[in-house]
Amino acid sequence: MINWMQKHKKYLIPTIWVSTIAFVGAGFVGWGQFDMNRDRSTSVAKVGDMTVSYQEFQQKYNNLYNYYNNILEGKMTQEEADKLHLDQVALVTAIREAMKLNYAKDLGIGASDEDILKHLIGLPEFQRDGKFDKDLYISSLQRVGMKPADFEKSLKNNVILNKLDSALDLTASKKDIDALSAAFFMQDRLSLGVIKMDFSDINATSDEIKKFWEDTKDDYKTVTSYELETLFISPDVTIDSAALMDFWEKHKTSYIDSNDKVKEFEAAKEEAAKDFKLELTKTTALKKYLALKKGEISTNDKLTVSQNDEFPLDEIQHQKVGEFIKPFEYKDGYLIVKIDKVNPPKTMTFEQAQSQVKEIFKGVKAKDELEKLAKKDLENFSGEDIGYVSRDTRMSYKDLNENEFSQFLSQLFDRSSSNKGYIIVGNKAVLYDITDQKLDNPEKEEQFKTVLSQEVANIKNTELEQDLLNSLEKRYKIEQYYKGNNIE
Fold first, then answer.
1. Residues 379-388: pLDDT tens digits?
2. Residue 192 near residue 384 (C-beta atoms within 8 A)
3. In terms of Cα–Cα distance, which of 384, 442, 432, 437 is closest to 411?
4. Among 33, 80, 174, 445, which residue's CB has the most CB atoms within a 10 Å radius?
């Protein structure tokens, strides 16, 4: 287990601390297998003398699932959850919390009934008119099949973890803030020069382009395409003004003008008529879909589509070959399709890729030429003194607009060494010479004092948290019972 934790740090998201209350209202998601020996059927792991119950594991998983579902605007699927290894993240999160709870116990940190009650009655999810409502509390837990005792145990653990975190909380010292301020707000005095190259003037021979393609041809793939059998249902219906007016009345809030106001009937008439015809055609399209499935009628056209076409690929991408797909809106009507064949991406021939390769090669060759010029000019470079600049300086300079100058500064301040050099920005090489440097910037430090203090504290506490967990991994024996996917 510890080996897995070390190898898969990218899956361990320390910034996601989802509250216990997030579990309320969430559905259950079942997965995995368990070692059924002894009492292991009810636990996923044991840390020290504490077990991690299946319910705690389930809660962590659901919290993470709903977190990502919110980010993806309700489009989270089990397939996506598996790709993100959510079961693994949930398991490691639960184990890490168990390690900290063991440590808190060793330190004598606990939570009284009064602590739990204070936390419980303060949860807005269980309040009506600003006051704790016991009936709402009980019914909310019943809805997800959770007992108050189990929920309150989770609250107790949260209270203990919060106490431990507060006890270990590190604050930022003046020295810490000064060090971070120097990293963010140091000022360099620069002498600059700019070399500009017109990439369109770069010539590329056929032999050069073909050689470049041979070296990089695996980078040039065709897109996935779908061969379809189709039946299009046109909205061939007649509507009268009264029916259209009634439709508009029911849906008028969908027709908004540029001032975010509901359009009057005459202004929305054409758009509403189109939508009304589609609505009337939907029943016909569904009937034809059922008839196609039964073999009573046949498709009448074929299409080959890919991401390069104006086609709603999301309607077919996850469907099975050989099955009819329910009608979906397409070109002012409805389309029913059956996927005959999916053509996966394959390496393009030189002829297919030639135009792409030519443009990319010209860019690569131009950058090489630009770098050669920059290196040559750098040998005797003196430049123009533009004074002191910091990472957030906003200005333009000669052929560099403000955005390009910001890109230059970002790369300059991220460089580890070299007081003299060049940086490529688009089709320009910016030659620079750092003639002086100031680490202190009192004005900026005062302006961002609070932000710097918070950032330093975050950095210190993140490091402390990781060091603590590394130590606790060695201190407490960890037994893992969960047999999930790809856990080593």
1. 889 889 999 9
2. yes
3. 432
4. 445
